[in-house]
Amino acid sequence: MSRQIFWCWAWVVASAALAAGCGGDEGPKLVPVSGTVTLDGNPLPDVAVTFHPDQAKGNKSGLIPAATANAEGKYELEASAKKGAEVGWYKVLVIASSPQPKGGEMPQVVPPPFNKKYMDAETTDLSIEVKADATPGSYDLKLAK
């Protein structure tokens, strides 16, 4: 085979490999994840919710889906600029927001209205399995003080 034909074929094979590996890849498959955050049965607004892959339960995902609960405590996860999370087990963290300072006031650290164990991956007891066929309410988060 001549050098010119070899390089032509090498270019075709490399181009096909790049086309298969780039552009056509839509990233990991995500499934919808939404729910309501409550504290002692009442909606908990304006908290950040993050799902951290639980490697101890086999979730090797590199994504950490996150959301902010609205005024009714409802959240919908997003990861990689897409709605949802990959299937698997997660440790769930809930982070309270601090009130914004007014005027020239110093920011104040306010303790969360819930047990601070929910703010740390080592201490949270919120563990959820994301499934493709989850029923409504599967991802509701019920916090205690």
Structure description:
The protein has 145 residues and is an alpha+beta fold. The protein has one domain (34-143): Immunoglobulin-like, CATH 2.60.40. It has one helix and ten strands; from the N terminus they run αββββββββββ. Strands 1, 2, 5 and 10 form a four-stranded mixed β-sheet that branches. A four-stranded antiparallel β-sheet has the order 4-3-8-9, with no helix packed on it. Strands 6-7 form a two-stranded antiparallel sheet. The longest helix has 19 residues, at 3-21.
Lay out the secondary structure.
Elements lengths: L2 H19 L12 E6 L2 E2 L3 E7 L12 E3 L5 E3 L1 E2 L2 E2 L4 E9 L30 E4 L10 E3 L2
Parallel strand pairs: 1-10
Antiparallel strand pairs: 1-2, 1-5, 3-4, 3-8, 6-7, 8-9
* The CATH C-level class name: Mainly Beta
**Roughly what fraction of the amino acids lie in strands?**
25-35%
SS element count, helices: 1
Calculate Rg over CA atoms.
22 Å
Q: What is the name of the CATH architecture?
A: Sandwich
The beta-strand count equals 10
Classification by helices and strands: alpha+beta
What is the mean pLDDT? 83
